[in-house]
What we know:
By secondary structure, this protein is of the alpha/beta class. The chain folds into 2 domains: about 5-130 and about 305-315, 3-Layer(aba) Sandwich (Rossmann fold); about 150-300, Glycogen Phosphorylase B (Rossmann fold, 3-Layer(aba) Sandwich). The protein has 14 helices and 12 strands. The chain has helices at about 15-30, 60-70, 85, 90-100, 110-120, 165-170, 190-195, 210, 225-230, 235-240, 250-260, 270-280, 285-300, 305-315, and strands at about 5-10, 35-40, 50-55, 75-80, 105, 125, 150-155, 175-185, 200, 215-220, 245-250, 265-270. Helix 1 (about 15-30) packs across helix 14 (about 305-315) and helix 2 packs parallel to helix 4.
Amino acid sequence: MTGTRLLLLPAGDRNTASSRIRVYQLHEALLRLGIASRIGLDGLDGPADVLFVQKRLNADRLAAVAAARAAGTRIVYDVDDLGGALRYWAPEALFEAMLARADHVTTASAEQGEWLAHAYGIRHWSAIANSIDYAPGPPVLPAPRAGDPLRVVWFGNDGNFRLMVPHLATLLGMAGVQPVAVVAGRELGKLRKAHPAVEFHAWTLAGFVPLLQTCDLAVLAHDGDADDRRKGNNRMVTAIHYGVPAVVSDTPEYARSAARLGVAEAVFGDPAGLRRAVAGLRRPAARLAYLRRAQPAAWAAYSPEVAARQFLRVFLGDPDTTPIHAPEG
């Protein structure tokens, strides 16, 4: 196993969440497991055993895939998003060409894989959940903050804040609740003007976790269109890991993860459910109890090493363990 040479091609740099989680953290975890992994094509002496391509496609990447395949390299293509978010990285014609060349496709949720199988006829795919973000060590359990206001955070790219907008009225209608948003992207100024009651902050890689930990709860929603509902769970498990309980929409990966982590009561499907879930976690003791249930389970299921072992099964083409169509239970 340690002789297997893995070559990983990220879509973006460490400021891109999916690349940070599904390539850079994966690479570092593989190295800790004793696997010969490297990032990028430069300086490669001879063919790799596996070429892992994360969603971004262009003519040069497809040429590299064709050359690697001709040399006997196993090709794994990672698709962790769908719709417009995917098209940003992979134009349709190139995407179809890549699917035709890939030996295996990985996704961030079972629903993404099922949709690709239906829409494109792919046969060999595995759903591998995102690991906890921001190069985690063991879970962090800060002392819950008492008193009002209850700081309720959403975080993500500016284009996804639309998923939080329908829930702002519910949160702002609750006494003593302050919505907070940590936003990556260029539209922060516009969002501040459009939603003056929300406390906005600009996301930075170095500053995010300390900022997250100034908040009491996270409210995270994927209840938009069909592609939104197929998204993965990384923001949920990341918030929990760093000591911020997450209240999440009743969408497949979030609901599945909440049940797995023992916090099914934190799932909401309508405004009344959101009010109930937030109210149930107002007391510091309730938030602490949530974290004591959820954090060990989240670390056991979503640490970078767990994800690396799951990816490694796909890389090695183990017929007894692939495809993995849902996170291990």
